[in-house]
Amino acid sequence: MPREITKHATILDAIQRIDLISELTNKTDGYYTHELDLEVIVYGRNYNGKKVGPYLRLFEFSAGEEVIRQGDWGNTFYITVDGHLDVYVSDDEVQRLKIGSIPPGVSFGETAILTGSQRNATIVVPPNGNAIVFEVTRPALRLLRKLGMFGQNLDVTYRKHVLGRTLEKMWRAAGDDYANENLERLSRAAQLMIYGKQHVLIQEGEPIDRLILIVNGWLQRSLRLGAQWVADASTEYGWKQHVDFLGAGHWLGLEGVPGEARWDYTATVMQRTEVLEIPLAHIRQDARLRDALRQSLHSLALAYDEVTPASSAADQLSLSAVEKEIMTGIVDATNLLVMDMDLCVRCGNCSLACHKVHGRSRIMRRGIYIERPITLRRASAQRVLSPAVCMHCQDPLCLTGCPTGAIGRFSNGQIDIDPKTCIGCGDCATQCPYNAITMVPRRGLAPEPRTLLQRLQSVFNLRHPAPPPPVTEVDNNVAVTCNLCHNTPLNPRGANSHVYSCQENCPTGALVRVNPREYFTEAKNRISLVYRDQTQAVGRNIHQSDPVAKLLRVWGVATILAVTCAAVWGLLRYGLETPLGTGRLTTMRWLTGLAGLGSVMVAFAYTLRRQIYRRRAGPLRYWMQVHVYAGIAAGVLLLLHAGSVRGGGLTSLLTISFYLTILSGFLGVVCYLFCPRLLTDLEGEPLLVEDLRARREELREKLADIDRHCTPKLAALIRRHVYERFFVLSFLIRQYLRREELSALLAAAQEETVTESGGTLDQQSRSLLLEAVETAVTLRRVDALIYLHQLLKLWLLPHVWSAILTIALMCVHIAQVILAAAR
Predict the structure, then answer these.
(1) Among 607, 623, 658, 664, which residue's Cα sits nearest to residue 811?
(2) Residues 6 or more apart from 524 whose CB is under 8 A from it?
């Protein structure tokens, strides 16, 4: 273990001896020029009793000790003070090779912080020496960048690192066709440039004077049509006929390598973008380099010679989806939570599971809504929601403002917050553009223990759980965010796979954690294969392929058919009461009864699984499938078990309760299959039932206010043409059958109402009438959505209570049968 040197005089002396940061100790008129920065970096400061810093620690490493290890994630970088360090890299065969050494006064490890990537080398103290090294935490970068030499060195180091990494990828992709010599010649001419959003990188019609390789970020390409530019993404579908998007790995300007040419499109930067630029004048002067580029670059990256036209509705939908994925930034996440809204039954189990595991839910079912093609070249759409939950960005903004370094990339590359060093300042929460970080009280009040009656009410209550009380404390808060369920019992040490509480406890498989560049295939096809980086493992994409679910489906259908055929064959051959052997319990009545009881027990296991949140018990969606198939098998077996003989009152009640359970379960399956799709069609964008109820009250108050401002004549007109027309069952059912867009429905309703009113109203009355129509139609749409939400849970109460009654009566029935057999 390295030994920490804590003496401040020694630390200040070491700073003065390192040119890179010696400016930190410069003095003006006898005072430190950067006194406040120096205090925070070296000593730390107290702000209202909360410690910030120190950001710099001095360590002495012994021979053979590792300073950093290749593949690790870190929130610190280092500066050598005394002694040399050896640099090793490990190849795919885990053979460690020494590639160089680091002398005193040099910084290393900072590019991994800036790029959000893993360490690319192992730094070790030589076997026959020792070293003194500064360890510097991430927040110090903001202060040290103000120093002229350090800031310049950091910029040069970053550009050199990205340039080298980019050329290395090119070399690996091109193989033997691209020699090291040409790479070196190319690197001397290449320049890494960084552009901000909306920068016009290429202007149509101008001469092609450079090659451009997109390293990170996105470009939008557009064409000029006649005298107009087609680059405004806010217009309707027409613009998309002549616009496309390009991501990392694409070369632009290849057509200018052989000779003079002009750009035939305009390219605009869509977000912060890094590009590699190589002047064509340099390439044309070097014949060998020019020939190598002409032979290799066309096979190295996906380069479009012209803007891809959108020739179909599927292309239009794909381009719209890509644009939103890029503009919102979700395509650049490393671990994205996606909800398929056609599968989401709005049960809230994902939020509950997160609450059970972490003590407070970190999922809010609001966020970025995208309609995208299910498969390319098909117009059918998938509606997905990316909730307001941490997506572990490649370039996270939340890390830039933290004054203590509490938030950072941890063991597996996930963004997490260390509560021990978090001071609750809220900088990370305000920096996050996705509202994925929440400030909560550090020590919440322990909930009062619930009684048995309260527990039963919570299990069978159809109401949505009340939201947690708002955070009112400002002095003792801590930031929390999704940490991919690390350091929880769900992911014990040595587990073969990583699971997430929200995904594990979704009953329909609506939620899945994905790599967005693989999931969103419309964006994936706009990134070169060489540049599809994935920084951490994600779950299997169950929306596109879930082999376990398919296997269970086949198993369930096969089991039901086999059990039904076997039971029917046995009954036809032996009857219910004829013994199949020597024992009294070998009749078909006993066999079907016991098999039916076993199926009921298998189905009932789903209820037990729903109570398990804090440890692994298998994805709930698989238990749901088994529950359904086992319930169907139990229904068939017990129907055959009962036969045509009418039993007593207890047996009849048992039969009624059992089939009420089956029928309510079938109603639930139907609701789960159709209601989410109806909801998604009518919503436009996902809405929580709490929002809908609040909106309904708002619309009702608005209608009441309109009535108060109406003349008697106008009030009668509104009652006849608005209330009697829209507040009827037929108009409510129309919402479900036609699934019209609300804007189109409003326009048609207003036009018809004005026509029917005769057109004799003054301007004020006409405005009130149109406002009443808009409010009434919107209110009916909200009502339709609320009823669908209620329908998704309405079947649950009779299903659960009839199941409980069935189990109780079945126990009594079994006891009676056993006593009768014993006599």
Answers:
(1) 658
(2) 517, 518, 532
Q: Which residue type, as a one-letter code, is found at position 264?
A: D
- Exposure letters 506-526 (e unless 16+ CB within 10 A, then b): bbbbbbbbbbbbebbbbbbeb
Q: Is 428 exposed, middle or buried (0-12, 13-18, 19+ CB in 10 A)?
A: buried
Structure tokens at 67: 């300073």
Helix axes 729-738, 649-683, angle to 10 degrees: 70
Q: CA separation (Å) from 276 to 164, 193, 204, 676?
A: 11, 6, 20, 46
Distance CA(45)–CA(36), nearest Å, equals 9
Q: Are 731 and 752 in contact (CB under 8 A)?
A: no
Which of 593, 612, 608 lies closest to 803 in space, CA to CA? 608
On the 0-12 / 13-18 / 19+ scale of CB atoms within 10 A, 699 is: buried
Separation of alpha carbons 210 and 191, rounded Å:
11
Residue 470 CA, chain-centre distance (Å), reads 25
Band of residue 231 on the pLDDT scale cut at 50, 70, 90 = very low
β pairing state of 85-90 and 96-102: antiparallel
Distance between CA 194 and CA 273 in Å, rounded? 6
pTM passes above 0.90:
no
Beta carbons within 10 angstroms of residue 815's beta carbon: 10
Phi, psi for 521 (deg, rounded to 5): -65, -30
- Nearest Cα residue to 173 out of 226, 213, 113: 213
Q: CB neighbours (10 Å) of residue 433?
A: 12
Inter-residue contact 619 to 503 (CB < 8 Å): yes
Whole-Å CA distances, 274 to 188, 303, 334, 643: 18, 17, 18, 75
Q: What is the pLDDT of residue 229?
A: 43
* Tokens read off for 422: 């978090």
Given a contact cutoff of 8 angstroms between Cβ atoms, the answer to whether 502 and 483 are in contact is no
Q: What residue type is assigned to position 118 of the chain?
A: Q
234 — pLDDT class (breaks 50, 70, 90) = very low
Taking the C-alpha atoms of residue 753 and residue 769, their distance in angstroms, rounded to an integer, is 8
Q: Among candidates 704, 272, 347, 321, which has minimal Cα distance to 507?
A: 347
* Residues 219/245, Cβ–Cβ less than 8 Å: yes
Which residues are CB-contacts of 141 (< 8 A; sequence separation ≥ 6)?
77, 110, 113, 154
- 244 touches 270 (CB < 8 A): no
CA dihedral (425, 428, 433, 434) in degrees, to 10, reads: -100
Q: What is the pLDDT of residues 710-758, one digit of tens each?
A: 888 888 888 888 899 999 999 999 999 999 989 899 999 888 888 877 6
Cα–chain-centroid distance for residue 412? Answer: 17
The answer to whether residues 57 and 48 touch, using CB atoms and an 8 Å cutoff, is no
